[in-house]
Amino acid sequence: MDWLELKPEGLFCVPGAFYIDPLQPVAHAVITHGHSDHARPGHQHVTATPETLSIMRLRMGEDRAGESQQALEYGEVISVGAVRLWLAPAGHVLGSAQIVMEYQGQRAVVSGDYKRAPDPTCTPFEVVPCDLFVTEATFGLPVFRLPDPAHEIGKLLHDVRLFPERTHVVGCYALGKCQRLIALLRNAGYHEPLWLHGALLPMCSLYEGFGIQLGELKSATAAKKGEMRGGIVLAPPSAIADRWARRLPDPVVCLASGWMHVRQRAKARGVELPMVISDHADWDALLDTCQATGAKEIWVTHGREEALIHALGKLGIRGCSLRLIGYEEDDEQAEEDAMA
Amino acid sequence: MIEFATLLERLAFTPSRNMKLALLKEYFTMAPDPDRGYALAAMAGSLSFAAAKPAMLRALAMERIDPELFAWSYDYVGDLAETVALIWQPESETHKSEAAPGLAEVVHTLDRLPKADVPDVLRRWLDACDASSRYALLKLITGSLRVGASARLAKTALAELASVAPDDIEEVWHGLKAPYGALFAWIEGKGPKPDAKDAPVFRPPMLAQPLENVDLAAFDPAEWRAEWKWDGIRVQLVSAPQGERVYTRTAEDIGKAFPDVLATMQDLGSRVVLDGELLVVRNDVVASFADLQQRLNRKSPTASMLRDLPAGIRLYDILFEDGEDLRPLPFDIRRQRLESWFARLNPPRMVLSDLIAFRNFEDLAKLRDSARSEGIEGLMLKKADSPYLPGRPRGPWWKWKREPLTVDAVVMYAQRGHGKRSSFYSDYTFGLWRTTDGKRELVPIGKAYSGFTDEELKFLDKWIRDHTTKRFGPVREVAHGLVLEIAFDAAQYSKRHKSGVALRFPRVARIRTDKPAEEADTLEAFIHAFL
């Protein structure tokens, strides 16, 4: 498809003259979701879902989240130049969207990050039939067949019951993972107050503003040490292995991430209770989704693209690698590096 | 298999001893017989199969997955069993409904399974298991199962469940066999205490307390006996009708590594339990601990090792003779029994630990400090009337270590600790100055992670953070600006560090903020003084 181009700033839609998740400030950016490697500050005009725009304003401040902002509900169609454009849910985090573009009878879908597993905190992924599908490949290896998140939450709650005198601290990314964990805990019948690192609270309030109930949340930073004993604390991964965590009584270090599926990665992080919970599509979901779109051509943006392209080839689908430098394969690592 | 796999996974990630204990107790309570017995055997290191080789796992995986995808996956995961466990996809939904095999079923099947049938059975099991159980199964079947809990810890968990002392379990342990039905029956109050009878069981040893904050002037020299404390491995030699054993003081059976000692015991044919120090003794001279380490590192020694690094035992005590329990007798009487046994049999490879004559403790202290011979750590003081009590009772036995050796070294790297210390940089690599081709540089000689107080740890942690120059994952390189006085028991040549030397039991004695890094010790002076 020759009307989507890869430029140094990012993926460019020629007939619409806009970039998708650009890495540098541009005149017109269409943003898939609010994670900092996709939504960057300083663009002139920004098009995204109301949720994503709201997240961008919270994270980068009103003045840096785009000089003008255009909110698009899922399914609301607009014309940008010669392109028909609309957003479809991606199921990654609140407000996450696939960018659907039509031009001269061809349809291209840029999925951004996405997952197929159910998530009570965001609208589920919608398959949009298309000619070109642009996919991520974070977990693009057949060893990544991730377990049911309810099972992983069960592991945590079992541990909390077994060690009531300790404090379970779960490392999780501030946008998406944190709120999903809370919702999963509530669905599993855990209704105690949850203790949150200060960096996580504003995003939770934002989610609640969009009608997502998270139950009682308390500030771990303001808590007295003994208060949190026996409870569950959520914090950014970088805070857990650092001085902030010294306020926690006898902590058990847990980390919620798809990478926890591989022992060595969990070991290297010093995690005591790995929880395999991811907001990305696992191997089966990647293959199923690529097939379900009916696309004849698949572009793979970031992750382990060679294995996915190989497997797609076996299914008769042409894939090619679109190495976009700058999109992190690992949210937690990105955040840790950002704070370092 | 699922419960066992879950336990394995949890133990692998849990550094805390107390949590491991709780996990073990939960497992032993919940898991059925005989599964839990085989799990116990796995912890004791006695559950090992070589039913499948890596090539077989690979071939099985290839039946289900594209070779290139497998290669990329293996490359990423880095462990064959884990790759196969994660990548394996049950052939059809019908297989998934089949129950996963229990641990006992796996063990019993493997015990009598012809090699040719292994792939078929394994394929069926893999189809029925989840990823975590597949991992445990593949590790078990290839003989590479590692359990994150020692046999001693498992016994402690059982003892707590039974409200008995771990040593009570220890005393019957080596007479028992997997799946330990009698043991579980006993700890659950459903059966009698197992009878060890003629089995070569381990007897928990008597250990000494360090002589600290004790007023020697209050001791009557006539009531005390003194022996050299040797830098070897404390062992228990057991000879019983059902066989001979060499145990470490933590009940590990190391007989396979010391066939020379076992053979000596067999030849003697005397039914005894002896307490002694395992050493390498060449031409009547005790060799360094490094030499002994070479023997300890080998599961079974080569012929040349047996020739060049012959094992010897320095005898301290006798616990049993011909079925008679000597432990309640006073030390002096046991010593007489040991001496007469020794004189009667004149056992090869063995010597008696010398009793050191002394008039008063001042003389003894002088003697202690003058002893610089290799292999001597200090002195042991034993009360003449002390019975042999398992554990570390305070009072009857003291270890009186030589003053440690010390060196002033510069901190080079620091690493985060584990568990409670995971937010602190608590492991320090330190080095000494070396001049090569006119260039002065630091070369590492060791690593220490103890010896400091909580306050000092806070200081060190902050210092590390404030002086970091580079990061490599969990490790930080720091500016060469902090001197630590490192205490250690001995120095030896070693290939472990760039400096070519290594320390035995290094710990931080003092933080020398008063000393500029340039004035820390040189490697040359260190080698001259200690090697």
Automatic annotation (TrEMBL), chain A:
Q: Which residues form the signal peptide?
A: none
Q: What are the protein's UniProt keywords? A: Exonuclease, Hydrolase, Ligase, Nuclease
What is the uppermost EC class here? hydrolase
Q: Which InterPro entries match?
A: MBL, RibonucZ/Hydroxyglut_hydro, Xnuc_lig_assoc
Tell me which domain of life the UniProt entry assigns to the organism this sequence originates from. Answer: Bacteria
- Is-annotated flag, keyword Magnesium? no
Assigned EC number? 3.1.-.-
Return one GO MF term.
ligase activity
Q: Where are the transmembrane segments?
A: none
Its recorded name reads Ligase-associated DNA damage response exonuclease
UniProtKB/TrEMBL annotation, chain B:
According to UniProt, the reaction catalysed is: ATP + (deoxyribonucleotide)n-3'-hydroxyl + 5'-phospho-(deoxyribonucleotide)m = (deoxyribonucleotide)n+m + AMP + diphosphate
Note whether Magnesium occurs among the keywords.
yes
Q: Which UniProt keywords apply?
A: ATP-binding, Cell cycle, Cell division, DNA damage, DNA recombination, DNA repair, DNA replication, Ligase, Magnesium, Metal-binding, Nucleotide-binding
**Root EC class:** ligase
**Origin, by domain of life?**
Bacteria
List the InterPro entries: ATP-dep_DNA_ligase (IPR050191), ATP_dep_DNA_lig_pp_1105_fam (IPR026333), DNA_ligase_ATP-dep_C (IPR012309), DNA_ligase_ATP-dep_cent (IPR012310), DNA_ligase_ATP-dep_CS (IPR016059), DNA_ligase_ATP-dep_N (IPR012308), DNA_ligase_N_sf (IPR036599), NA-bd_OB-fold (IPR012340)
Q: SUPFAM superfamilies, from UniProt?
A: DNA ligase/mRNA capping enzyme, catalytic domain, Nucleic acid-binding proteins
GO MF: DNA ligase (ATP) activity
Pfam families xref list: DNA_ligase_A_C, DNA_ligase_A_M, DNA_ligase_A_N
Which EC number(s) does UniProt give? Answer: 6.5.1.1
Outline the extent of the ATP-dependent DNA ligase family profile domain: 304-434
NCBIfam families given in the database record:
DNA_lig_bact, PRK09247.1
Task: From the Swiss-Prot or TrEMBL record, give the protein name.
Answer: DNA ligase (ATP)
